[in-house]
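REQUEST FORM: STRUCTURE PREDICTION
Request ID: SP-0412
Submitted by: Lab K.M.
Chain count: 1
Length (residues): 498
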Amino acid sequence: MNKNRIKSGIALGLTGALLGGLLGACSVGPDYKRPDVPVPVQFKELPGWSAAAPADAAPKGDWWTGFNDPLLNQLEPMVAVSNQTVRQDYANYQQALAEVSEARSQYFPTFGLTGSATRSGGGVGTAATGGSNVVNSGSLEGTASWTIDIWGKVRRQVEENSATAQADEATLANATLSEQTLLATTVIELRLADADIDLQQKTVDYYRETLRIVEAQGAAGITATPPSAVITARVALETADATLTGLGVARAQYAHAIAVLVGKNPEELDIPHSTVMPTLPVVPAGVPSTLLQRRPDIAIAERTMAAQNAAVGVAIAAYYPTISLSAADGFSQSPLDGLLRAANHIWSIGASGSETLFDFGARSADVAIAKAAYEGAVANYRGTVLAAFQAVENDLSGLRIQEEQAQKLDVAVKDAIRGSQIALAEFQAGTVDYTTVAQAQQTQLADQQSALSVQQSRLLDAVSLIGDLGGGWSDQALHDPHHPDRPAPADAAVAATP
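STATUS: Completed
RESULT:
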């Protein structure tokens, strides 16, 4: 028995030494290196819009506070907790983390315990057995098995799953940022609807006063006020009043959309009318290279590329043999009495290997598929970066051009208001007909609506620019769990789970 124990110990020791050496084996397949992407020194539109600022001045975390809108400040934090799109992406991220743990478990051996007990009999026993032929037998055995990762297949699988999990984390951040920017956009649309309603109400009041004046002029018998002028003024008032009523439809739809974005039923959220529009924030764009660090969609594309690179290694590892070790140690006895005695001790240790000799091109096809998928991921990554630069350039050009347009419209609106006042005064004096007044009023309303539209476009471009610059996201948060910019929806979603 002692000799058997010594042999067993020597065998296990040699096996441990062998396993230790195998753990240091290299991984097959290419090591990942992020492809280079040409990055310009600065944005083309930047010099005409805003000077670059240090990274610490970039919008982070509660970026929406720059719009100075109480509704945004109240609702935006709810997106990370209650928005159903964000919660779905959080669940996908948790699934990816579990898959990483599953892949890592293959680094280690599998242990098992098997026990059995059997009672059997038959025939006629002897006098010594009391006339019965019943035998009790049993065994108790511990087992261990391990498929050794000599060629690094498991390591590449863990690498692939880890990169995929990081891509899912970036997807979570991207979903959060997208839903937050969509909420900001919808709130701005709602505020514009309120401003349009206010403008239309003022127009209705103005047209009503104009109609009163025209009717008074006609009643006084002034020749410059024919009956058609009264009809024209009345139609203008009725049309403006109908338009005012119709504006309530769009506002209601924006309010309903806002409720859904924060995970509420439309009837649960009451948004009162506001007479104040959000303010235009100052968003420093920085240098273009910061896009590679801030945008979650670029992080998604880059991590997907890393996962596909690891998948090439997994496919290449199929060319190499699979080697497994197994060991067992326990007791077996028949009859069952005295099962755990030294004399009943049994043990075994062994190894097995398997290799595919002919597969008619299946493995080479798998490698080709993995390489093609990697090349596609590289193209997607570079395309995502280029699209990001394009989006920011569009945002910057929109802000720059519309700032000039807003300044010109401000002058036009002031002149149009003054023109309407003069035309109405001249009409009352009898020097012009009502057509001049109607045209002046139409011009005033059109200019005021254009000014509101430009104001809306500038605010929407500011939201879009914040989203295109990555909002509060940073690439460091993807890898550093303690980084201050790390997305918070994960913890928030857990807390909100019923």
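NOTES: Residues 362-429 form the longest helix (68 residues).
Reviewed by: T.R.
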